[in-house]
Amino acid sequence: MDQRKHHYQEHPWDDSVYGTGRTEPPKNRGGLIALLLIFIIFLCGIITALSILNVRLFRELNTQEESDLSLSFSSCETTPVEISTRMEETTQATVPQGSHSIVLQQAPVVTDSESGTGELSLQQIYKNNINSVVSIMCEQETGSSSGTGVILSQDGYIVTNCHVVEDADAITVRLTDERDFSAMLVGTDAVSDLAVLYIEADNLLPAQFGNSDSLQVGDSVTAIGDPLGVEFRGTYTNGIVSAINRDVTVDGRTMTLIQTNAALNSGNSGGPLINCYGQVIGINTMKISAFTNAAGVEGLGFAIPSSTVKNVVEQLINQGYVSGRPTLGIEGEALSTFYQHYYRLPAGLYITDIASGCDADRKGLEEGDILMSIAGTGVTTMDDLNAVVYGYAVGDTVDVIIYRGGNQYRVDLTLEEDKG
Questions:
Q1: Would the CA dihedral through 19, 24, 27, 28 be positive or negative?
Q2: 98, 150, 169, 273, 284 from 300: Cα distances, Å
Q3: How far is CA 90 from CA 164, 169, 281, in A?
Q4: Which listed CATH number (2.40.110.10, 3.30.200.20, 2.30.42.10, 3.30.450.20) goes with 55-76+328-417?
Q5: Could you tell me if 260 and 239 are in contact, meaning their C-beta atoms sit under 8 angstroms apart?
Q6: What is the pLDDT of residue 43?
């Protein structure tokens, strides 16, 4: 009997494993898809809203003509008198005509054998000066601020810091007898951080100014002001002169200041730094922590020397500006990273205002242009611009690069005198 053999040939894909597949029911992904659609709609809404909010910039940048610029610019006279104009509309004060000057009195000569002769007690210094110190309150579009001031003359001139009153729509001066006066802005100088106000008042008690050139490290000094606002007005602190002729750079400008460890805080700005003879030898302007990220820094305050105050204040009163200050006559604001990426713009300063009749105006610069660099230095803020400009003198020519309508233009601008 024939015995037949049956052979089973395995297929190469047969792994001898019997697979049943997945025994669990298929998942329902409808909810996940719905959530994804909601997220996409929300994201589109955000992009649409941002586009609407930025339509002004989009229109300005896309409606500018791509015409060639005749680029030979000279700095123009900026017009920081906008505040002054607004103040004139809200006050009846009229600035008296005529020249004014500040007399710097010499400190008494003291020999070693007469140590302490002529020095006043802390109580006497305060009593002699408190009625020459005023509180300054400013109203701005974004809120309010306050600082301190020093009376310069019987007829109403007051000195304070420029940063105390800048961008103010209304300025009020409060005397120690609680009387309030609407103040007119006579002039400002951002380089020295000084400003002069005028109030229509009589028989004021002017401060006695001493000569800061005679200061020595270790001299006793005191300060009067309104730290943290008028709630603490008339606060009196004391210390010593920690350093003289200290160069401090802030917002692109370098100032030579008096360093002191007398306690100064926000609100003390514009107040007096007084020597041991009761003479004002400086106008307080800043403390270290005001412009650094340093934590726990104490006893590093600065004041503008009275010799600088005399020079600047007399020019502001007599001619309304400080001679020799260079300017381009350009105002601008920083371009955010979003603007740069969304509109494919270069980094630079977005020009918001150009002084009429200035060299930049004459040579065709327009609002909406982007200032990319000055003299080979990139600029993105007004501080960057000022830092470069302050390094030059009136009459110097600087090379600038302007972006407009997808093109870059090179322009030579001549720095002019800033007459306010």
A1: positive
A2: 39, 22, 32, 14, 12
A3: 19, 9, 33
A4: 2.30.42.10
A5: yes
A6: 77
pLDDT band per the 50, 70, 90 thresholds, residue 295:
low
Q: In this predicted model, which residue has the larger pLDDT, 200 or 72? A: 200
Residues carrying CATH 2.40.10.120, the chain:
82-94+101-107+118-319
Q: Mean pLDDT across the stretch 267-292?
A: 89
- The more confident residue out of 94 and 185 is 185
pLDDT level of residue 294 (50, 70, 90 thresholds): low
CA-to-CA dists, residue 355 to 126, 227, 358, 420, angstroms: 45, 36, 6, 11
Which residues make up the CATH 2.30.42.10 domain(s) of the chain? 55-76+328-417
Q: Give the active site residues.
A: 163, 193, 269
Cα separation, 252 vs 245, in Å, equals 18
Neighbour-count burial for 161-196, b at 16+ CB within 10 Å, e otherwise? bbbbbbebebbbbbbeeeeebebbbbbbbbbbbbbb
Query: Distance (Å, rounded) from C-alpha 258 to C-alpha 189?
Result: 18
Q: What is the pTM (predicted TM-score) of this model?
A: 0.71
Higher pLDDT pick, 44 / 25: 44
Q: Does domain 82-94+101-107+118-319 have CATH number 2.40.10.120?
A: yes
Please state, in angstroms and as integers, the Cα–Cα distance from residue 186 to each residue in 83, 195, 365, 387, following that order. Answer: 10, 8, 30, 25
145 close to 158: Cβ distance less than 8 angstroms: no
For residue 370, the cross-strand partners are: 350, 403
Q: Is the pLDDT of residue 169 over 60?
A: yes
How far apart, in Å, are the Cα atoms of 383 and each of 116, 147, 303, 390, 396? 45, 23, 21, 10, 19
Q: Which residues contact 94 (CB under 8 A, 6 or more apart)?
A: 200
Distances in whole angstroms, Cα of residue 134 to Cα of each of 203, 347, 350, 378: 14, 43, 38, 41
Burial label for 379, CB within 10 Å (0-12, 13-18, 19+), is buried
109 pLDDT band, cuts 50/70/90, is: low
d(CA 305, CA 303): 6
Q: Report how far residue 211's alpha carbon sits from residue 193's, in angstroms, rounded to the nearest whole number.
A: 19
b/e 396-413 (16+ beta carbons within 10 angstroms → b): eebebbbbbeeeebebeb
Say how far apart CA 403 and CA 291 lie, in whole Å: 31
